[in-house]
Amino acid sequence: xxxxxxxxxxxxxxxxxxxMIEVHEAATGQVLAAIPAGSREAMEHAIASADKAFxxxxxxxxxxxxxxxxxxxxxxxxxxxEIAEAICREVGMPLKLARQIQAGLPAVITKSYLKMLPDFxxxxxxxxxxIQYAPVGVVGCVTPWNYPLHQVIxxxxxxxxxxxxxxxxxxxxxxxxxxxxxxxxxxxDLPAGVFNVVSGYGHEVGDVLIHHPKVKMVSFTGxxxxxxxxxxxxxxxxxxxxxxxxGKSASVVLPDADLKAAVKGTVNNCLLNSGQTCTALxxxxxxxxxxxxxxxxxxxxxxxxxxxNPLDENTRLGPLASAVQRERVLDYIxxxxxxxxxLVCGGTEAPxxxxxxxxxxxxxxxxxxxxxxxxxxxxxGPVLCIIPYESEEQAIEIANGTLYGLSGAVWSGDQERxxxxxxxxxxxxxxxxxxxxxxxxxxxxxxxxxxGREFGKWGLEEFLEVRAxxx
Length: 471
Ligand code: NAD
Hints:
Blueprint: E1 2-3, E2 6-9, E3 12-15, E4 20-24, E5 31-36, H1 40-57, H2 62-78, H3 80-91, H4 95-116, E6 123-126, E7 129-135, E8 138-142, H5 148-162, E9 165-169, H6 176-186, E10 195-197, H7 202-211, E11 215-221, H8 224-237, E12 240-244, E13 249-253, H9 259-271, E14 281-287, H10 291-303, H11 323-338, E15 342-345, E16 363-366, H12 373-376, E17 383-389, H13 392-399, E18 408-411, H14 415-422, E19 431-432, E20 450-451, H15 456-461, E21 464-470
Parallel strand pairs: 1-5, 8-9, 8-11, 9-10, 11-12, 13-14, 13-18, 14-17, 16-17, 18-19
Antiparallel strand pairs: 2-3, 4-5, 6-7, 7-21, 12-20, 15-16
Helix pairs in contact: 1-7, 2-4, 3-4, 4-5, 9-10
The chain binds nicotinamide-adenine-dinucleotide.
Protein backbone atom coordinates (compact mmCIF):
# COMPACT_ATOMS: atom_id res chain seq x y z
CA UNK A 1 0.00 0.00 0.00
CA UNK A 2 1.28 3.43 -0.93
CA UNK A 3 1.03 5.96 1.90
CA UNK A 4 1.11 9.59 0.78
CA UNK A 5 1.37 11.67 3.92
CA UNK A 6 2.20 15.03 2.41
CA UNK A 7 0.36 17.92 0.81
CA UNK A 8 1.87 20.15 -1.86
CA UNK A 9 1.60 23.74 -0.67
CA UNK A 10 3.68 26.82 -1.51
CA UNK A 11 6.20 24.80 -3.49
CA UNK A 12 6.91 22.41 -0.57
CA UNK A 13 5.80 18.93 0.46
CA UNK A 14 4.25 19.60 3.86
CA UNK A 15 4.06 16.66 6.29
CA UNK A 16 0.55 15.52 7.10
CA UNK A 17 -0.16 13.84 10.44
CA UNK A 18 -3.97 14.06 10.47
CA UNK A 19 -6.71 11.70 9.23
CA MET A 20 -6.15 9.69 6.07
CA ILE A 21 -8.51 8.54 3.28
CA GLU A 22 -8.14 5.04 1.83
CA VAL A 23 -8.05 4.62 -1.94
CA HIS A 24 -9.23 1.24 -3.27
CA GLU A 25 -8.07 -0.83 -6.21
CA ALA A 26 -11.14 -1.06 -8.45
CA ALA A 27 -10.49 -4.63 -9.62
CA THR A 28 -9.98 -6.16 -6.17
CA GLY A 29 -11.55 -3.79 -3.65
CA GLN A 30 -8.28 -3.94 -1.68
CA VAL A 31 -6.71 -0.80 -0.21
CA LEU A 32 -4.27 0.57 -2.77
CA ALA A 33 -3.13 3.78 -1.08
CA ALA A 34 -3.89 6.27 1.66
CA ILE A 35 -3.92 10.05 1.21
CA PRO A 36 -4.37 13.03 3.56
CA ALA A 37 -7.97 13.94 4.44
CA GLY A 38 -6.80 17.57 4.55
CA SER A 39 -8.17 20.27 6.85
CA ARG A 40 -9.51 23.83 6.86
CA GLU A 41 -6.06 25.07 7.98
CA ALA A 42 -4.24 23.25 5.17
CA MET A 43 -6.71 24.56 2.58
CA GLU A 44 -6.47 28.12 3.92
CA HIS A 45 -2.67 27.90 3.85
CA ALA A 46 -2.77 26.74 0.22
CA ILE A 47 -5.17 29.55 -0.77
CA ALA A 48 -2.98 32.15 0.98
CA SER A 49 0.07 30.78 -0.88
CA ALA A 50 -1.74 30.95 -4.22
CA ASP A 51 -2.91 34.48 -3.44
CA LYS A 52 0.63 35.60 -2.57
CA ALA A 53 2.06 33.96 -5.69
CA PHE A 54 -0.55 35.63 -7.93
CA UNK A 55 1.10 39.05 -7.67
CA UNK A 56 4.23 37.76 -9.46
CA UNK A 57 2.81 35.00 -11.69
CA UNK A 58 0.09 37.24 -13.13
CA UNK A 59 2.90 39.53 -14.37
CA UNK A 60 5.08 36.71 -15.74
CA UNK A 61 5.93 36.76 -19.43
CA UNK A 62 4.33 34.38 -21.89
CA UNK A 63 7.79 32.89 -22.49
CA UNK A 64 8.13 32.04 -18.81
CA UNK A 65 4.72 30.32 -18.81
CA UNK A 66 5.53 28.44 -22.00
CA UNK A 67 8.84 27.24 -20.51
CA UNK A 68 7.06 25.76 -17.51
CA UNK A 69 4.43 24.08 -19.69
CA UNK A 70 7.18 22.61 -21.92
CA UNK A 71 8.88 21.20 -18.82
CA UNK A 72 5.54 19.80 -17.67
CA UNK A 73 5.00 18.13 -21.05
CA UNK A 74 8.41 16.42 -20.80
CA UNK A 75 7.43 15.08 -17.40
CA UNK A 76 4.01 13.90 -18.59
CA UNK A 77 5.63 12.03 -21.46
CA UNK A 78 8.42 10.55 -19.35
CA UNK A 79 6.03 9.33 -16.63
CA UNK A 80 3.19 8.15 -18.89
CA UNK A 81 3.37 4.47 -17.87
CA GLU A 82 3.36 5.31 -14.18
CA ILE A 83 0.34 7.61 -14.63
CA ALA A 84 -1.53 4.99 -16.68
CA GLU A 85 -0.98 2.24 -14.14
CA ALA A 86 -2.02 4.37 -11.16
CA ILE A 87 -5.26 5.40 -12.88
CA CYS A 88 -5.91 1.91 -14.26
CA ARG A 89 -5.79 0.58 -10.69
CA GLU A 90 -7.84 3.28 -8.98
CA VAL A 91 -10.46 3.91 -11.72
CA GLY A 92 -10.52 0.51 -13.44
CA MET A 93 -9.90 1.54 -17.07
CA PRO A 94 -8.08 -1.19 -19.06
CA LEU A 95 -4.35 -0.44 -19.06
CA LYS A 96 -3.98 -0.23 -22.83
CA LEU A 97 -6.70 2.41 -23.02
CA ALA A 98 -5.46 4.15 -19.87
CA ARG A 99 -2.10 4.65 -21.59
CA GLN A 100 -3.79 6.30 -24.56
CA ILE A 101 -6.47 8.27 -22.79
CA GLN A 102 -5.72 8.74 -19.09
CA ALA A 103 -1.99 9.36 -19.61
CA GLY A 104 -1.95 10.30 -23.31
CA LEU A 105 -4.67 12.93 -23.42
CA PRO A 106 -3.10 15.20 -20.76
CA ALA A 107 0.05 15.37 -22.91
CA VAL A 108 -2.02 16.05 -26.05
CA ILE A 109 -3.84 18.90 -24.30
CA THR A 110 -0.66 20.42 -22.92
CA LYS A 111 0.83 20.28 -26.42
CA SER A 112 -2.26 21.93 -27.90
CA TYR A 113 -1.89 24.89 -25.52
CA LEU A 114 1.85 25.16 -26.22
CA LYS A 115 0.98 25.45 -29.90
CA MET A 116 -1.92 27.86 -29.49
CA LEU A 117 -0.59 30.26 -26.85
CA PRO A 118 2.01 32.16 -28.90
CA ASP A 119 -0.77 33.29 -31.28
CA PHE A 120 -3.41 34.04 -28.66
CA UNK A 121 -4.25 37.77 -28.67
CA UNK A 122 -3.79 38.78 -25.01
CA UNK A 123 -4.37 42.35 -26.24
CA UNK A 124 -6.53 43.57 -29.13
CA UNK A 125 -7.45 46.95 -30.57
CA UNK A 126 -11.06 47.98 -31.11
CA UNK A 127 -11.47 51.56 -32.37
CA UNK A 128 -9.75 53.80 -29.81
CA UNK A 129 -9.58 51.05 -27.18
CA UNK A 130 -6.95 48.54 -26.23
CA ILE A 131 -8.64 45.38 -24.97
CA GLN A 132 -6.58 43.47 -22.43
CA TYR A 133 -7.20 39.93 -21.23
CA ALA A 134 -6.12 39.64 -17.60
CA PRO A 135 -5.94 36.56 -15.36
CA VAL A 136 -8.96 36.07 -13.10
CA GLY A 137 -6.92 35.45 -9.93
CA VAL A 138 -6.71 32.44 -7.62
CA VAL A 139 -8.61 29.52 -9.16
CA GLY A 140 -10.01 26.64 -7.13
CA CYS A 141 -10.12 23.46 -9.20
CA VAL A 142 -12.44 20.69 -8.00
CA THR A 143 -12.29 17.47 -10.02
CA PRO A 144 -13.92 14.01 -10.25
CA TRP A 145 -12.58 10.47 -10.49
CA ASN A 146 -13.40 9.18 -13.95
CA TYR A 147 -10.59 10.85 -15.97
CA PRO A 148 -8.69 12.20 -12.99
CA LEU A 149 -5.58 13.67 -14.61
CA HIS A 150 -7.20 14.72 -17.88
CA GLN A 151 -9.83 16.76 -16.03
CA VAL A 152 -7.15 18.41 -13.89
CA ILE A 153 -4.90 19.24 -16.86
CA UNK A 154 -7.84 20.76 -18.77
CA UNK A 155 -8.13 23.31 -15.98
CA UNK A 156 -4.61 23.76 -14.66
CA UNK A 157 -2.77 24.21 -17.98
CA UNK A 158 -4.99 27.03 -19.35
CA UNK A 159 -5.30 28.60 -15.86
CA UNK A 160 -1.51 28.81 -15.49
CA UNK A 161 -1.17 29.93 -19.12
CA UNK A 162 -3.61 32.76 -18.38
CA UNK A 163 -1.49 33.87 -15.39
CA UNK A 164 -3.76 32.50 -12.68
CA UNK A 165 -2.60 30.56 -9.64
CA UNK A 166 -4.30 27.32 -8.62
CA UNK A 167 -5.41 25.30 -5.62
CA UNK A 168 -6.47 21.82 -6.67
CA UNK A 169 -8.86 19.64 -4.66
CA UNK A 170 -8.72 16.32 -6.52
CA UNK A 171 -11.25 13.51 -6.23
CA UNK A 172 -10.85 11.48 -3.03
CA UNK A 173 -11.75 8.33 -5.04
CA UNK A 174 -8.93 8.63 -7.61
CA UNK A 175 -6.37 11.11 -6.27
CA UNK A 176 -3.05 9.44 -7.12
CA UNK A 177 -2.32 11.25 -10.39
CA UNK A 178 -2.84 14.65 -8.68
CA UNK A 179 0.10 13.86 -6.42
CA UNK A 180 2.13 12.72 -9.44
CA UNK A 181 1.26 16.03 -11.08
CA UNK A 182 2.52 17.94 -8.03
CA UNK A 183 5.79 15.97 -8.26
CA UNK A 184 6.02 16.89 -11.94
CA UNK A 185 5.42 20.60 -11.27
CA UNK A 186 7.96 20.47 -8.42
CA UNK A 187 10.53 19.40 -11.05
CA UNK A 188 9.79 22.46 -13.23
CA ASP A 189 10.67 26.14 -12.76
CA LEU A 190 7.12 26.98 -11.64
CA PRO A 191 7.44 29.50 -8.78
CA ALA A 192 6.34 28.40 -5.29
CA GLY A 193 2.64 28.80 -4.55
CA VAL A 194 1.45 28.93 -8.17
CA PHE A 195 0.16 25.33 -8.02
CA ASN A 196 -1.02 23.67 -4.79
CA VAL A 197 -2.75 20.37 -4.00
CA VAL A 198 -4.92 19.75 -0.94
CA SER A 199 -6.69 16.39 -0.93
CA GLY A 200 -9.74 15.54 1.15
CA TYR A 201 -13.50 15.18 1.08
CA GLY A 202 -15.61 17.56 -0.96
CA HIS A 203 -17.95 18.62 1.84
CA GLU A 204 -14.94 19.39 4.08
CA VAL A 205 -11.87 20.83 2.32
CA GLY A 206 -13.77 21.30 -0.95
CA ASP A 207 -16.30 23.39 0.93
CA VAL A 208 -13.55 25.67 2.29
CA LEU A 209 -12.17 26.17 -1.21
CA ILE A 210 -15.47 27.04 -2.92
CA HIS A 211 -16.46 29.56 -0.23
CA HIS A 212 -13.11 31.31 0.28
CA PRO A 213 -13.20 35.04 -0.60
CA LYS A 214 -9.60 34.97 -1.95
CA VAL A 215 -10.66 32.38 -4.56
CA LYS A 216 -11.90 34.34 -7.57
CA MET A 217 -13.03 31.43 -9.69
CA VAL A 218 -14.05 27.81 -9.20
CA SER A 219 -13.54 25.47 -12.13
CA PHE A 220 -15.44 22.28 -11.44
CA THR A 221 -16.01 18.95 -13.13
CA GLY A 222 -18.29 16.45 -11.46
CA UNK A 223 -21.91 15.73 -10.67
CA UNK A 224 -24.73 18.16 -11.34
CA UNK A 225 -25.67 18.07 -7.64
CA UNK A 226 -22.21 19.31 -6.56
CA UNK A 227 -22.26 21.83 -9.42
CA UNK A 228 -25.42 23.31 -7.93
CA UNK A 229 -23.74 23.59 -4.52
CA UNK A 230 -20.82 25.39 -6.15
CA UNK A 231 -23.07 27.77 -8.10
CA UNK A 232 -24.87 28.70 -4.85
CA UNK A 233 -21.56 29.22 -3.02
CA UNK A 234 -20.20 31.36 -5.87
CA UNK A 235 -23.25 33.62 -5.79
CA UNK A 236 -22.31 34.94 -2.34
CA UNK A 237 -19.32 36.91 -3.63
CA UNK A 238 -19.83 36.65 -7.41
CA UNK A 239 -17.01 34.21 -8.08
CA UNK A 240 -16.58 33.13 -11.66
CA UNK A 241 -17.62 29.54 -12.25
CA UNK A 242 -16.97 26.98 -14.95
CA UNK A 243 -19.04 23.84 -14.48
CA UNK A 244 -18.67 20.59 -16.42
CA UNK A 245 -21.30 18.18 -15.18
CA UNK A 246 -23.39 15.17 -16.11
CA GLY A 247 -25.01 13.96 -19.29
CA LYS A 248 -27.57 11.60 -20.79
CA SER A 249 -26.49 11.84 -24.38
CA ALA A 250 -28.54 10.51 -27.29
CA SER A 251 -27.26 8.67 -30.33
CA VAL A 252 -29.84 9.26 -33.04
CA VAL A 253 -29.82 6.66 -35.80
CA LEU A 254 -31.76 7.93 -38.82
CA PRO A 255 -33.58 5.42 -41.07
CA ASP A 256 -30.98 5.71 -43.88
CA ALA A 257 -27.98 5.09 -41.59
CA ASP A 258 -25.63 2.11 -41.59
CA LEU A 259 -27.32 0.50 -38.60
CA LYS A 260 -24.47 -1.89 -37.82
CA ALA A 261 -21.84 0.87 -37.70
CA ALA A 262 -24.15 3.13 -35.69
CA VAL A 263 -24.96 0.51 -33.05
CA LYS A 264 -21.33 -0.63 -32.76
CA GLY A 265 -20.11 2.97 -32.47
CA THR A 266 -22.73 3.76 -29.84
CA VAL A 267 -22.09 0.65 -27.75
CA ASN A 268 -18.33 1.23 -27.76
CA ASN A 269 -18.80 4.86 -26.78
CA CYS A 270 -21.33 4.00 -24.06
CA LEU A 271 -19.07 1.37 -22.50
CA LEU A 272 -15.85 3.41 -22.60
CA ASN A 273 -14.35 3.45 -19.10
CA SER A 274 -17.21 1.11 -18.04
CA GLY A 275 -19.72 3.87 -18.76
CA GLN A 276 -18.01 6.29 -16.37
CA THR A 277 -17.79 8.99 -19.01
CA CYS A 278 -19.82 12.19 -18.85
CA THR A 279 -20.23 12.27 -22.64
CA ALA A 280 -21.28 8.60 -22.90
CA LEU A 281 -23.95 7.92 -25.53
CA UNK A 282 -26.33 6.17 -23.16
CA UNK A 283 -29.56 6.48 -25.16
CA UNK A 284 -29.69 4.79 -28.56
CA UNK A 285 -32.63 6.12 -30.59
CA UNK A 286 -33.60 3.85 -33.48
CA UNK A 287 -36.51 3.78 -35.97
CA UNK A 288 -39.22 1.53 -34.47
CA UNK A 289 -39.06 -0.89 -37.41
CA UNK A 290 -35.32 -1.42 -36.82
CA UNK A 291 -35.56 -1.77 -33.05
CA UNK A 292 -35.24 -5.57 -32.86
CA UNK A 293 -32.33 -5.65 -35.30
CA UNK A 294 -30.60 -2.91 -33.28
CA UNK A 295 -31.04 -4.98 -30.09
CA UNK A 296 -29.38 -7.97 -31.74
CA UNK A 297 -26.50 -5.84 -33.00
CA UNK A 298 -26.07 -4.30 -29.54
CA UNK A 299 -25.99 -7.76 -27.95
CA UNK A 300 -23.25 -8.81 -30.41
CA UNK A 301 -21.20 -5.65 -29.77
CA UNK A 302 -21.46 -6.08 -25.98
CA UNK A 303 -20.35 -9.73 -26.23
CA UNK A 304 -16.99 -8.52 -27.56
CA UNK A 305 -16.34 -6.42 -24.42
CA UNK A 306 -14.43 -9.01 -22.40
CA UNK A 307 -14.65 -8.12 -18.71
CA UNK A 308 -11.68 -8.65 -16.44
CA ASN A 309 -8.82 -7.16 -14.47
CA PRO A 310 -7.89 -3.89 -16.22
CA LEU A 311 -4.18 -4.72 -15.86
CA ASP A 312 -4.76 -7.70 -18.19
CA GLU A 313 -4.07 -6.68 -21.79
CA ASN A 314 -7.07 -8.72 -23.05
CA THR A 315 -9.61 -6.91 -20.89
CA ARG A 316 -11.98 -4.54 -22.67
CA LEU A 317 -14.39 -3.82 -19.81
CA GLY A 318 -12.95 -3.03 -16.39
CA PRO A 319 -14.70 -2.53 -13.05
CA LEU A 320 -16.28 0.68 -11.76
CA ALA A 321 -14.20 2.97 -9.58
CA SER A 322 -15.84 2.33 -6.21
CA ALA A 323 -18.23 0.14 -4.26
CA VAL A 324 -20.59 3.12 -3.92
CA GLN A 325 -20.69 3.58 -7.69
CA ARG A 326 -21.27 -0.15 -8.26
CA GLU A 327 -24.26 -0.08 -5.87
CA ARG A 328 -25.64 3.04 -7.57
CA VAL A 329 -25.45 1.39 -11.00
CA LEU A 330 -26.93 -1.92 -9.75
CA ASP A 331 -29.86 0.05 -8.26
CA TYR A 332 -30.49 1.56 -11.70
CA ILE A 333 -30.42 -1.88 -13.35
CA UNK A 334 -33.01 -3.11 -10.80
CA UNK A 335 -35.04 0.03 -11.47
CA UNK A 336 -34.95 -0.56 -15.24
CA UNK A 337 -36.37 -4.05 -14.73
CA UNK A 338 -39.08 -2.67 -12.39
CA UNK A 339 -39.92 0.08 -14.89
CA UNK A 340 -40.70 -2.62 -17.46
CA UNK A 341 -37.80 -2.17 -19.89
CA UNK A 342 -36.70 -5.35 -21.71
CA LEU A 343 -33.33 -6.69 -20.53
CA VAL A 344 -31.40 -7.58 -23.71
CA CYS A 345 -28.20 -8.58 -21.89
CA GLY A 346 -26.38 -7.96 -18.61
CA GLY A 347 -28.10 -7.67 -15.23
CA THR A 348 -27.20 -7.43 -11.58
CA GLU A 349 -24.93 -10.50 -11.26
CA ALA A 350 -21.17 -9.81 -11.37
CA PRO A 351 -19.56 -10.96 -14.64
CA UNK A 352 -18.19 -14.50 -14.38
CA UNK A 353 -14.74 -14.61 -12.81
CA UNK A 354 -15.08 -10.99 -11.62
CA UNK A 355 -16.70 -11.53 -8.23
CA UNK A 356 -14.08 -9.42 -6.42
CA UNK A 357 -13.81 -5.71 -7.02
CA UNK A 358 -16.42 -3.31 -8.34
CA UNK A 359 -17.56 -5.04 -11.54
CA UNK A 360 -20.94 -4.62 -13.23
CA UNK A 361 -22.09 -6.49 -16.34
CA UNK A 362 -22.49 -4.48 -19.52
CA UNK A 363 -26.27 -4.12 -19.64
CA UNK A 364 -28.62 -3.22 -22.49
CA UNK A 365 -32.26 -2.33 -22.00
CA UNK A 366 -34.64 -2.24 -24.97
CA UNK A 367 -38.10 -0.74 -25.56
CA UNK A 368 -37.23 1.90 -23.01
CA UNK A 369 -39.83 4.58 -22.27
CA UNK A 370 -38.02 7.92 -22.90
CA UNK A 371 -39.69 9.38 -19.80
CA UNK A 372 -38.63 6.53 -17.48
CA UNK A 373 -35.95 7.22 -14.88
CA UNK A 374 -33.32 5.01 -16.56
CA UNK A 375 -33.77 7.11 -19.71
CA UNK A 376 -33.73 10.44 -17.88
CA UNK A 377 -31.09 10.11 -15.13
CA UNK A 378 -27.33 9.75 -15.50
CA UNK A 379 -26.38 6.20 -14.46
CA UNK A 380 -22.60 6.50 -14.93
CA GLY A 381 -22.08 2.81 -15.52
CA PRO A 382 -22.15 0.30 -18.41
CA VAL A 383 -25.87 0.63 -19.17
CA LEU A 384 -27.39 1.42 -22.59
CA CYS A 385 -31.07 2.26 -23.19
CA ILE A 386 -32.50 1.52 -26.65
CA ILE A 387 -35.48 3.75 -27.42
CA PRO A 388 -37.67 3.28 -30.54
CA TYR A 389 -39.05 6.32 -32.39
CA GLU A 390 -41.62 6.81 -35.17
CA SER A 391 -40.46 9.99 -36.95
CA GLU A 392 -37.42 12.28 -37.21
CA GLU A 393 -39.32 14.99 -35.32
CA GLN A 394 -40.06 12.58 -32.50
CA ALA A 395 -36.41 11.44 -32.41
CA ILE A 396 -35.24 15.04 -32.00
CA GLU A 397 -37.85 15.65 -29.31
CA ILE A 398 -36.73 12.56 -27.37
CA ALA A 399 -33.04 13.45 -27.80
CA ASN A 400 -33.72 16.92 -26.36
CA GLY A 401 -36.09 15.61 -23.71
CA THR A 402 -33.78 15.47 -20.68
CA LEU A 403 -32.36 18.18 -18.40
CA TYR A 404 -28.89 17.50 -19.82
CA GLY A 405 -27.10 18.52 -23.03
CA LEU A 406 -23.44 17.48 -23.04
CA SER A 407 -22.93 15.28 -26.08
CA GLY A 408 -24.78 13.39 -28.79
CA ALA A 409 -24.46 11.59 -32.09
CA VAL A 410 -26.35 11.47 -35.37
CA TRP A 411 -26.00 8.73 -37.97
CA SER A 412 -27.30 8.97 -41.54
CA GLY A 413 -26.34 7.90 -45.07
CA ASP A 414 -26.65 11.57 -45.99
CA GLN A 415 -24.07 13.79 -44.21
CA GLU A 416 -26.10 16.99 -44.80
CA ARG A 417 -29.24 15.41 -43.33
CA UNK A 418 -27.18 14.24 -40.33
CA UNK A 419 -25.77 17.77 -39.89
CA UNK A 420 -29.23 19.29 -40.11
CA UNK A 421 -30.52 17.01 -37.31
CA UNK A 422 -27.30 17.61 -35.31
CA UNK A 423 -27.97 21.35 -35.55
CA UNK A 424 -31.28 20.87 -33.76
CA UNK A 425 -29.83 18.98 -30.78
CA UNK A 426 -29.62 21.10 -27.61
CA UNK A 427 -26.19 19.84 -26.67
CA UNK A 428 -22.55 21.03 -26.57
CA UNK A 429 -21.11 18.56 -29.09
CA UNK A 430 -22.48 16.11 -31.64
CA UNK A 431 -20.56 13.28 -33.30
CA UNK A 432 -21.77 13.12 -36.90
CA UNK A 433 -21.42 9.64 -38.46
CA UNK A 434 -18.70 8.71 -35.98
CA UNK A 435 -16.59 11.89 -36.43
CA UNK A 436 -13.40 11.84 -34.34
CA UNK A 437 -12.98 13.55 -30.95
CA UNK A 438 -11.12 16.85 -31.46
CA UNK A 439 -9.11 18.29 -28.56
CA UNK A 440 -9.09 21.73 -30.20
CA UNK A 441 -12.89 22.02 -30.30
CA UNK A 442 -14.85 23.54 -27.38
CA UNK A 443 -16.28 21.08 -24.85
CA UNK A 444 -19.09 21.76 -22.43
CA UNK A 445 -22.78 21.53 -21.87
CA UNK A 446 -26.22 23.05 -22.34
CA UNK A 447 -28.71 23.06 -19.47
CA UNK A 448 -27.84 20.93 -16.43
CA UNK A 449 -24.65 19.70 -18.15
CA UNK A 450 -22.71 22.86 -17.52
CA UNK A 451 -21.68 26.46 -17.79
CA GLY A 452 -18.60 27.44 -19.79
CA ARG A 453 -16.32 25.56 -22.15
CA GLU A 454 -13.01 23.73 -21.89
CA PHE A 455 -10.33 22.90 -24.52
CA GLY A 456 -8.64 25.27 -26.96
CA LYS A 457 -9.07 29.04 -26.87
CA TRP A 458 -12.48 28.69 -25.21
CA GLY A 459 -10.85 26.87 -22.28
CA LEU A 460 -8.26 29.66 -21.93
CA GLU A 461 -10.83 32.47 -22.09
CA GLU A 462 -12.64 31.03 -19.04
CA PHE A 463 -9.65 32.14 -16.93
CA LEU A 464 -9.41 35.68 -18.34
CA GLU A 465 -11.12 38.92 -17.31
CA VAL A 466 -11.57 41.57 -20.00
CA ARG A 467 -10.33 45.13 -19.51
CA ALA A 468 -10.76 48.01 -21.99
CA UNK A 469 -8.32 50.92 -22.01
CA UNK A 470 -9.90 53.92 -23.74
CA UNK A 471 -7.04 55.71 -25.51
P1 NAD B 1 -18.87 14.60 -7.45
O1 NAD B 1 -19.65 15.80 -7.78
O2 NAD B 1 -19.34 13.72 -6.37
O3 NAD B 1 -17.39 14.99 -7.05
C1 NAD B 1 -16.57 15.80 -7.87
C2 NAD B 1 -15.62 16.59 -6.99
O4 NAD B 1 -16.37 17.50 -6.20
C3 NAD B 1 -14.83 15.72 -6.00
O5 NAD B 1 -13.52 16.24 -5.90
C4 NAD B 1 -15.58 15.93 -4.71
O6 NAD B 1 -14.80 15.73 -3.57
C5 NAD B 1 -16.00 17.38 -4.84
N1 NAD B 1 -17.14 17.76 -4.01
C6 NAD B 1 -18.21 16.99 -3.68
N2 NAD B 1 -19.05 17.69 -2.88
C7 NAD B 1 -18.51 18.93 -2.71
C8 NAD B 1 -18.90 20.09 -1.99
N3 NAD B 1 -20.02 20.13 -1.29
N4 NAD B 1 -18.10 21.17 -2.05
C9 NAD B 1 -16.95 21.16 -2.76
N5 NAD B 1 -16.52 20.07 -3.45
C10 NAD B 1 -17.29 18.97 -3.44
O7 NAD B 1 -18.70 13.81 -8.83
P2 NAD B 1 -17.98 12.41 -9.05
O8 NAD B 1 -18.91 11.37 -8.52
O9 NAD B 1 -16.57 12.45 -8.58
O10 NAD B 1 -17.92 12.35 -10.65
C11 NAD B 1 -18.92 11.84 -11.41
C12 NAD B 1 -19.75 12.94 -12.02
O11 NAD B 1 -18.93 13.82 -12.76
C13 NAD B 1 -20.75 12.43 -13.03
O12 NAD B 1 -22.00 13.03 -12.80
C14 NAD B 1 -20.20 12.88 -14.37
O13 NAD B 1 -21.14 13.07 -15.36
C15 NAD B 1 -19.51 14.12 -14.01
N6 NAD B 1 -18.47 14.41 -15.00
C16 NAD B 1 -18.63 15.45 -15.86
C17 NAD B 1 -17.68 15.74 -16.81
C18 NAD B 1 -17.83 16.88 -17.78
O14 NAD B 1 -16.84 17.33 -18.30
N7 NAD B 1 -19.01 17.37 -18.02
C19 NAD B 1 -16.54 14.99 -16.88
C20 NAD B 1 -16.41 13.93 -16.00
C21 NAD B 1 -17.37 13.67 -15.05
